[in-house]
Amino acid sequence: MGHGQLIALLAFVMRPLWTAPDLNAIAERAHGWTVFVDARSGEDETSASGVLIPGGLVLTDLHGLFARRPDGTVAPAEIVVVVDGVGPLPALLAGFDAELGLAVLRLPDQARGLSGAPLATTDPGVADELLAMGNDGKGVDVLGVKVDHVGQVWLHTTTTLPVAFRGGPLFDTSGNLAALELPFGVAAASSVLRLLEQK
To answer: Residue 11: which residues within 8 A CB-CB, separation 6 or more?
Structure first.
C-alpha cells in the first residue's frame, strides 16, 4: 500500500462519527412555528412571541392575556395569533400556569392540521446549544445560545434574550422544542409537558 493510500485510509477510518447539526436548516424549519401573539382589551395591547405545536395549540407568555373588566372581574383578552403563511387567527386561552407564566392557546378547528413543533422528550443539559427564536410581528429573529446552568424548572443561558423573544421557543439541535423564554426565565420542555398533560 502506498503512502498516499495509507493517509486516505486513515482519514476515512478516523473521520468523526458525529457530524455537526445544520443549524440553518433547523432555523428554517422552525421559522413557521414561531408565531406572533397580540392581545387586546380596550385600549390596552400586549404582544409576545409564541410557538405553534401539533393540534392547533400555541404556547406563549401568560402576561397580558387577562384583562380587568369595569366591574373588577378578570377575563381573557381578545387574542390573535399571526401564523406564517396563514395570517392572523383568533385564539382562546385553553390553559395556563401562573407560576411559570406560561399560557396555552387554542386556535380555530381548521388550524388543527397545521404543522407544529415537536416537543423534546428530554431537557437540555449544560453546554447544550439551543436556537432561540422571536417574532416581533415583522419577522422572526434567531439567536444561538448555550445552556449555562440547569435548575429544577428553569434553564440559564449564556446570553440574555431580547424582549421580543418573550414567549418564544428555544429549539435543540434536533429541531425539537426544548424550552420557552418566559418572564421568570427559560422553562424546560418538561415543565411545558406537565401543563399540556392537564389539557
So the answer is: none
